[in-house]
Amino acid sequence: MPKVYLKNFCAKDGSIAVLDKTRNRVFSTGLEAVAVEKNFYTVDGLEDPYCWEKAYAESVEPMMSVLLPKIISRVHVLVQTGHCIINKDEKSQLALIMVMQLLRGKQSRAYEKKLFDELLPSTIEKAKEKFGPLTDEQQKRLDTFGTDPQFFKQISMGLTWDIERLTRYTNILMWHDFVFYHICGDMEFVTSDNPVMFINSNTANLPMVWLAKRRSSIIPFRPNYYFALYIQMLFSSSFRIKMGACVVLMPPKKKALLRP
């Protein structure tokens, strides 16, 4: 999880409140100790094992560090519901940030690993049928594909940075209306180690396969501010909010509005 994102949820002293769902306890700590897994992007065997980590640090995270504060600064008590706070270029950048954040996370990695394990055997058999019997050396190399975690990780990271795939997913999000919500009161939004949540608009479930029909999505920006994407056809003519609009919420009680 990028620290440039999490710092928006920190207290004035730099600490962040954490809910450990496995132990059901709440504690405060520094950003260095949360939402991090050592060597998650490291791929042994490459000329530079840390190339993927550097790619995030040099491209996506700087974009977040500029765009998120810029958008957040435009939301304050004087901004009324319906006021547009982003332009088309900023919408495109925000869509790309969401796609990258989703694809780089543990949930997507686990989903890709499941598909990899399911499809690899049949893929190998098809290769044998097409190219004929394999030599002992070729068979040995194929056997390592399914057991070498670095091989899978390299494939996964390559897919995450596939330009055609990123462009396609970003364009799908661009078809949605972006709506920003600002709480004027004591209630708060919370975030998680998977902040980009795609919600089935009919059932309110959070499925893994997210680019499907009738899916909305939300991502908290800070405790009193989040934005949502809605498929345009979900709004009726009587409840139409223009793209990029800010919506002011006036909650009655102090309570977390969204929980991971």
Keywords for this entry:
7 helices, 260 residues, alpha/beta, 40% helix, two-stranded antiparallel ribbon
Folded structure, characterized:
By secondary structure, the chain is of the alpha/beta class. It has a five-stranded mixed β-sheet with strand order 5-6-7-3-8. It has a two-stranded antiparallel sheet with strand order 1-2. It is elongated. It has seven helices and nine strands; from the N terminus they run H-E-E-H-H-H-H-H-H-E-E-E-E-E-E-E. Strand 6 and strand 7 form a beta hairpin. Helices cover 40% and strands 18% of the residues. Helix 2 packs across helix 3 and helix 3 (88-103) crosses helix 7. It has helices at residues 3-6, 51-73, 88-103, 106-131, 136-145, 149-160, 163-174, and strands at residues 16-20, 25-29, 176-183, 188-189, 197-200, 215-222, 225-231, 245-249, 256-258.
